Amino acid sequence: MNEFELIQTYFRRDPLDPSVILGNGDDAAVVAQGSGIQTVLSVDSVIAGRHVPEMCPPDGFAARLMGRGLSDLAAMGAEPKYVLLSLTLPTLQPGWVDHFASRFHQLCVRFGVDLIGGDTTKGPLSAHLTVIGHVPEGGALTRQGLKAGDDLWLFGPDLGGARAYLDVLDGHQDDQALWAERYWRPEPQLEAGQSLRGIAHTLIDISDGLCQDLTHLIEKASNPLTVKLRSKSLPLCNELNDRYGRDVALQYALTGGDDYCLLASIAKGVNVPAGGHRIGMVVDAMTDQILLDDEPLPASWTLGWDHSR
Predict the structure, then answer these.
(1) Of 123, 135, 210, 285, which is most buried by a Cβ count within 10 Å?
(2) C-alpha span between 260 and 180 (Å, rounded)
(3) Closest CA to 258 of 196, 305, 220
(4) Which helix H or strand E contains 30, and what residues bound it?
(5) DSSP character for 237?
(6) Model confidence pLDDT, tens digit, residues 12-26
């Protein structure tokens, strides 16, 4: 049973309260608030030895935690407002905590969020961040609504760098500054998400791998669809082609995850906000599938990250 089957089997339930507009199963939940706004909420985890190395630099730990969490709000088109932090520490090391807290508060100021509560405890190094934001009533973007005739747009700098940095951490590649930046300091595409309200049919952030996250959009469509991706349109991170060759570079870009770009489906002819890359299109089909340059994806590819593996 993978992560998504586990959620569907054990934790997917119809909301009891009518104020819940959107429950679990998307990037975030949406709750009616009144006064023309809705509240968007999500929680994410960073666990040493699972999502980051056991020996984790405090500023990188804070930046990765904040970037991952706020990316969920970006994927809903929400404006961030508040965060709750639960932090578990093996031992109290004042120097480590001082650097973590300093970076965390800097990021709160940068993204305009207030830390309003949380919890601390002793145990293996990990943190859980609850993010809370607002959207205008009816303005939240979701994973549901992919349609034939849509174009696929990617908003964010590039793909594959964070995955390549895992090879640096494993000692299989020489260090590369931009790959390290992509891994340790993910940049939530908040402005892009808000600019896509009322424009995109669907929106999701690329956390687990573009193809795997794209599969979530396809599965929620009302009829079978084929997505045609174009390799030449994909913004690959620096040096991927030079270090790995085209095939592995494309595999890392499409399946590696931790990119935190936004993937949007938008009807043809719509005025698209600046900064996007048109990477493919959606057509009617007999069965759901993803094609790359009109060919099926390689059978050897694992489409993305599964937290249960």
Answers:
(1) 210
(2) 14
(3) 305
(4) strand 29-34
(5) P
(6) 667 666 787 877 766
